[in-house]
Amino acid sequence: MTNLISSDSLNYSFLLLVHVICADQQIDSRESKALQELASQARINQITLQSAEKILAQDEDCLSIEQVAQKISLGQRIESLRQVLAIAYIDGYFSPLERELVNQITQWWGIHKPEVNEMLEAAQGFGQTSLENTEDQVNLSIGARLLQGAESLLSQSLVSKLAELAPENIGKKVEQLQREILLSGPEYGEAIERCAKIANDDYRYAEKALKHTCKTLQDLAEGIQKVTNDIQQNTRGKGKQTSAKEVTDQLAETRQTLFAEILKELETIREALKAKQRALNHFSIAFMGKTKAGKSTLHAIVTGQGWDAIGIGKQRTTRYNRVYDWKNIRIIDTPGIGAPGGKTDEEVAKSIIEEADVICYVVTNDSIQETEFEFLKVLKEKTKPLTILLNLQYNLRDKRRLDNFLSNPDRFFAKEESSGIGGHIERIERYAREHYANDYLDIIPVMLLAAQLAQEPEHKNRSKQLFQASRVQDFLDSIRTSLIEHGAIRRSQTLLGSTVGAINTPYKWISTQGIAYQELAERLKVKQQKLKTQLQKAEQDVGDDLCQKVKAIFQDALNAVPEFAEEYWQKKEDGMERGWKHKLQEIQFEQQLKAAPQEASQSFQDEVEEALEEIGNELKIIAEFRDEKYSFSEQDSSDFNKKFIGLGGAILGALLACAIPFFPPIASLLGIFGTVLGIGSSLFSNMFKSKEQKRREAVENISISLENQLEDRYNEIDERVQKNFEEYCQSVTEIVDKYFDNLIQSIENMAMQLKKAEGKLKDSEDYLNRAYAKRIIDWASDQYEPLDDIVIKTKIRKVERDFGKEIKIFATSNIALKKSLDDIQRILQESVSIQTPKN
Question: Using CA atoms, how far apart are residues 469 and 500, in angstroms rounded to an integer?
Fold first, then answer.
């Protein structure tokens, strides 16, 4: 690629913002104008603007986002990242594409994800922004906080332009459909009016429930923060303070993990709320399917626009969601699902699901693979009504084949013949049951190429015949029916029924984590009790061994007494003193007495650490199992428990090293022979006994005296050693026990916070499900009345819903249904039961 613009003159930070503006894959002229005004305020030069125009137009010659990002200097990257986040987070959430873009930039720059989360967490200020504020105030305050302290002219200019760059203020350029083949007649106006009334009522409920969910998540973040802040309160003494600090340090990682998940869920909820706002005034129909399945052709047939992007050899014709508005209807063409390297395209397609009332999934008969139906799981998670369009691909551009088709088009749509489409439909139904959880859906076969040929000048004479033979009218009729006959309930499905999914996801995550925390607390209690037993046994065993060692050391001294008495019985006082001191040093009496308690304390500490490491390893194994059992968030929760449980030698080893007291030292014992010297002096005063008699008496008296003194000192030392060792063990046990007490209490408090949030989210789910149930009953009985809490309470006793699979409605009175249960389930594409008092 040749780049004619001098790179030295480009403002790459500004160009990076242009790429961020393009991240939602929808470019508006007013958005471009706002960028130009930003460029003017920030004094961006003309050649940078020219490069920006190329990015906006997606010219092949435009600088890629990676090229732009790599050109930004190291010193500018943090501020540039804050600028990117200010725009990407302008709605109060990341769209999937914006998230991916930011992730790419941070990977190129070597910025770790936690740093980005900290920026957003600080800007979010959990609980500091009142939900009563307008969205603009919230968004601008977040953007301003992200750019707080930034000094560059671009950052300062960006703060003043955030409101104009916000998508809700930019608006969408309304595209007029060139043909009105989809809907006509007075019933259309009546359906639109009815849908508008219902949508406005339903949106109030969706908005209230989603804002309540946001508040619940913010309160949960604050509650978790309070738990970690409260740990070290009311702790006295070095051991207690140290154990509390270690618990705080250990919980820091799990708190950050929870905060990251809460932040992500908040973004998802706000994204859902924005989608509901965008969906409020339109009945939206989205075309989805794999690349080259015919979506763009179908879109062009319905809207009469976009034919120039369709033709032989054209590939990946839709890179953005192309939205056409007409008379309160939106027709949305999405990028291909499952295209090579098309993850971004798939995220673009997913971004429209929340606001779509009907989704038309296009497949072809030449390659019906199970993999392309896996995307239906995403649609089912949102409880979206689905129509399968089977596009029969047959080369009609060959004149002989075209003539053959037009001679008997019904033959190509026959199910029974060997070459018919029956086998394709059976496979579609089988895959739909597996990935969409039911087969309450319509499969409409069409030949889109025939309808496309009908628009081409060379087939003008057979245009009507081609369009009729394409059977596209069958699809248009189904859409017409979906709006006129089912539009009201479709709106309620979008604004009430599927909104429950946005709450259900954090509800399931919080419920799962609550169970995990509570079970971990209970398991730690068991482990704590087991540890107490192990430490008691270790204290007993090591204490007994210490006593035996002390006894053995004194026994060595006693064994040395006879030889010492024989050798030193006639020595003078100082000689005898030096001799006994030498004898004790020779048998390392004092060294052994000092070493024995220290060895015992180390042995006990080893027992403690070994027991703790065993507990840590057991919990890690449990954590790995729990990840497989409970984890449903692939990106952020898969290794949560393994990160959290670090109870082995690493953490508690540090705890013990900091907190365990040293064993009190033994005082010097060499002075125990003072009495021996006295005995020696009395022996020299007796001059009238024989030498042998003197020797015997002296040896006996020295031995008795030393043995008695050693016995006294042994009793004294043994008692002191046992007392000191017992106090030492109690100190260690108290530290470890307090650590577990703090940890268990903190985990239980976190579980309580999660349980409280779970209850609030369940209330929000019930709130929406009851409103949705009321709408279902109204529609099924051909009635309509404004939605309010009193009416809902009067008509609906309770609702039980397995989201996306089944909804059980318990009415307060008998209902005269005008639709069969089979019809209700087929149209709602969900298993439905309505229980009345007579049931």
Answer: 42
